[in-house]
Specification:
The N terminus and C terminus are likely disordered. It is built from 10 helices and 21 strands. Helix 3 packs across helix 9 and helix 4 packs parallel to helix 6. It has about 475 residues and is α+β, with helices and mostly antiparallel strands. Strands 3, 5, 6, 7, 8, 11, 13 and 14 form an 8-stranded antiparallel sheet that branches. Strands 1, 4, 9, 10 and 16 form a 5-stranded antiparallel sheet that branches.
Length: about 475
Amino acid sequence: MYSNDARIRRRKLLWGASLLLAGLAVASAPVLAHGDDHRGQKWVASWAASAHGPYPSGNAVAQPNLAFAFGDPAVGANDQTFRLVVRPDLWGKTFRLRFSNRWGVQPVTLDDVYVGLQKSAGALVPDSNRPVTFHRRGTLTIPAGQVAYSDPVELEYVSDPAKFYLDGKKMAVSFHVVGTSGLMTWHAKALQTSYVSKPGTGSHGGDEGDDAFPNSTTSWYFLDVVEVMAPSDTLLVVAFGDSITDGTASTLNGDDRWPDDLSRRLHAKYGDRVSLVDEGIGGNRILTPLDADYTPQTPFSGGPRALSRIELDVFSLGGVSAVVWLEGINDLSAGATSDEVIAGIRQGAQLMHARGLKLIQATITSALGNNTADPAADVDRDNRRKAVNAFIRTAGIFESMADMDAATVDPATGSLKAEFLVNSTLGTIDHLHPNRAGYQAMARTVDIRVLGPDGHGHRDHDD
């Protein structure tokens, strides 16, 4: 039972979430939308990264010093070119890009946008770079708070007989920021190296070499979705959550987050009939902080809470059919009760089911040992975590449950297993983020039969 104060807090949280969902539904509508004439096909997200806030608010990993790439964050990018490296989960001949100015405070103008294949560092495979247009024009201006899709771009060199060589290949999306951008919408924790030219050096998106890109970054900017034209029965799975889904403690440039491992399992079984994208944000929470206070001027490092960003980061993606959701430890660390987290999970499940999506809910992995400054608080948080996990295991409101906690916890200590503790990139131990081996174990807990084209839900009853 909720106390009177808890009931009031819960009503405020749910009321705020409903208002923000309505607002995001408008903001997420493409500014520049267009149709297609591909019979028997549809747009399916092949890569995505939540545009969670304005640079530099966020939790980047292994980020180099960006002082020479960017000056004042309020000025943002200044007449310079980005070459972002992304790994499409599904390849095809026709792609389109979605750019976001979600957290900008002024219009941002991009030109000389290209899509090619990364060769090494900022260099491209020769003759792979193709220009991208927007309503058949080479320039795109995105108003503050909005997103915009490109026209379809044909990569004619992607042919079925030779497609195998593109599996795992990385795409380079290049674009020039005209003038200054103001606050840059970004995804901090890419765990993938991309490249940026010096300020004031103009457009280099068409360059095949990397001489114009002396600055590296482990974050993505402005680009938040890459979609591919795929058969109409292709399914999209979205991994949704916080830093553990975003891949903290996995290998820089290694593509070994648990969603990456799950993707490999899905493709091994279902081939190109399924795509998976990762919409994790380091520091994200289900319910808090209240997004009424989340603005470009007053951001939080964890981005907007899950229940408000779900519209843009899940529902707006082409082809979405299922979600694997792992979240809640940051709420518990911030003092949320187990009942409050459970209420948030219930509301998320209701929102997803209302859209006809399957939901696999993951149990929250251990953080015991993370709060060495206050051992009593560390134990208290763990007890609340166990209460949430007991609900997840028995609620019967999900299509399936992935017991990521059971796969990673040491029963003798209640902490993560020792072999999962050492960070795969930095070598540190925080008792919160599993390493490469831990993420592999987590991915194996997902029943991929539920996610596949012939998957059948296991939910006992409607929530």
